[in-house]
Design goal:
300 residues; 11 strands; 3 domains; Arc Repressor Mutant, subunit A; alpha+beta; 4-stranded mixed β-sheet
Length: 300
């Protein structure tokens, strides 16, 4: 465990995956917390890496990631690690061809200190050295979501949006089939009526995306004859239009950081505010308000 690297929790870290992995049906079987831990593991991979490394995170960090009490982490970690270690992803490229890949090679947990994990080498071609057909959304967009449907749909949306978010006056439009949305959410045999799918899957995901990603998604039906077989989507930025109550907690911290930095330039910052500024810089990874508005720079 001494050789394991600490996870990088900065919010400008991106999640680079080959697009075929996003659409792999087996990925939809992952539970919410398993998907979060998988995304964190993938986000630690750098574009220049040629192999996977061991990473470590602490029980308190897991409690925060999973939104549970610290006392429940051991039991949840055991369940999640077993799920990830046993998961096999099947990628189909034709009628009679497929590739199967294990997700994780290792999960070691000590409730007093650390969880050490490592992705399986079989995943290398899907996560490392990517040159084309890949997406790289921000990993922290997913961490506060409460539904695996929301995570799957936002990942698919980001693929269609080429990993960008819309600017204030530049909406992004794209379309997706109902089949694609059902595939990534694992709902081929659930919510069979389109109205049910909208109510329990799509609309709930869109609400979570607005809250966590600061992007408002609207859609209209795409029909084949009288049947709905997909949707036309429009993504708009809600930056600047949110009320104080709508602002995510960490965004409020960023705005406070921006204000305190402005005070240092005018010399009006108090000693207490200066200490607060240093704490915020450490916690938030020194990102500026401009970084946020420009969808964060890629940290390579």
């Amino acid at each position: 465990m001494d050789d394991a690297k600490k996870i990088d929790k900065r919010e400008n870290i991106k999640l680079a995956t080959h697009n075929s992995l996003i659409e792999a049906p087996d990925l939809a079987k992952l539970s919410l917390n398993a998907r979060k831990l998988f995304y964190v593991a993938v986000s630690q991979c750098k574009m220049s890496d040629t192999e996977f490394y061991e990473y470590e995170t602490t029980p308190p960090e897991l409690a925060e990631m999973w939104g549970i009490d610290r006392s429940r982490v051991y039991r949840e970690a055991e369940k999640i690690c077993k799920e990830l270690m046993g998961m096999v992803i099947t990628l189909k490229s034709g009628k009679k061809s497929f590739k199967m890949r294990h997700l994780y090679e290792k999960c070691d947990y000590d409730d007093d200190s650390v969880l050490v994990f490592k992705l399986h080498p079989e995943m290398t071609d899907l996560l490392l050295g990517l040159k084309k057909d890949f997406s790289q959304p921000l990993v922290w967009d997913f961490m506060r979501m409460r539904s695996p449907y929301s995570m799957a749909i936002w990942h698919l949306f980001q693929k269609e949006m080429q990993s960008f978010k819309p600017m204030m006056n530049s909406p992004i439009e794209f379309e997706l089939s109902l089949e694609e949305l059902r595939k990534v959410t694992g709902t081929e045999n659930k919510f069979k009526q389109v109205g049910q799918f909208k109510q329990f899957v799509l609309d709930k995901a869109i609400k979570e995306i607005r809250k966590n990603c600061w992007v408002e998604i609207t859609y209209r039906n795409k029909k084949r004859g009288r049947s709905i077989d997909g949707f036309y989507f429009t993504a708009k930025s809600i930056w600047g239009s949110m009320t104080d109550d709508e602002l995510p907690h960490r965004l409020r911290k960023r705005l406070r950081l921006h204000d305190l930095k402005a005070k240092t330039k005018t010399g009006s910052i108090s000693p207490e505010e200066f200490d607060e500024l240093q704490e915020l810089i450490l916690e938030l990874g020194q990102l500026s308000l401009e970084d946020i508005m420009n969808n964060y720079p890629l940290d390579d």
